[in-house]
Design goal:
Elements lengths: L22 H21 L14 E6 L5 H17 L5 E5 L7 H7 L5 E5 L6 H12 L5 E3 L7 H14 L7 H5 L1 E7 L5 H18 L3 E5 L7 H10 L4 E6 L6 H8 L13 H14 L15
Parallel strand pairs: 1-2, 1-3, 3-4, 5-6, 5-7
Helix pairs in contact: 2-10, 5-7, 5-10
Amino acid sequence: MTASNPPRDESQPSPGGRPLQGAHLDSTAQLMDRITSQLGSRLGLVSMNGSRRPAPPALVLVAHGSRDPRALSTVRTLAERVRELRPHLPVHLGHIELNEPLLPDTLAALGDPGAVLVPLLVSRGHHVKRDIPEAVAAARTDIRIAAPLGPHPLLVEALYARLVEAGWRTTLSDGRRRASAVVLAAAGSRDRDSAAGTRRIAELLAERLDVPVVPAYASAAAPTVSEAVRALAARGRHRIAVASCFAAPGRFATECAEAAPGVAAAPLGAHPAMARLVLHRYDQALEPAEPTAEPALATA
């Protein structure tokens, strides 16, 4: 949220060289906020009769990993936002590849009472169906696997916000609407469930924007972003934006943005809606379910 008069840095003197009159009050307020947050975290582990509640299962954010240094920074920031929303919940990070900590190492360090893995992936493809369950099978603790991020309205909220930040107009004239469209850029997969999930996300975003939204892919599936842009232009849609359906920056996200003819949104990143979605998937995975011999996988 923006403000017309942002607070002055408390470490800086006032223009007259005297300490700021509100500095002490600001410091006191910040201290009280920290105390309240810590107290709330401790009280969350105490039941009404005064006994200590069992610690909740840890939440493990499962990121893909990338050689782009912005990716690791982004998922760490997202983890911090999740912790801010639920201070008593242990939050950890594990990567499928390319970055540390790797998921098997994170799982090996976990103890009781187990964990819920929340994939920072937008659809149910190979990583969700194969790589993550294989890592869970090798671990020696009680672990559930949550559903991937999409499709979900909170994911659409983050996509919409990133488009607006990049310059998408929230109000369009009839003529501009008829000339506008969005390409939803995703990683791509040969898995049918993954493609179906991406198409559903595109449908939800189209409902929100009231313009056509076409899925496109960085690899393993068609069309590419460039192909989708050309197809839309052939239909008279010349004002085309690219929405980035990637959890964090990386090679695929960068290549898709470079193919945008106009507005190119940033990846989903640590948007507040993403933190809420992560916790929703965590809670959903802990809902009672039929017992099964395989690691539990929450429904979308």
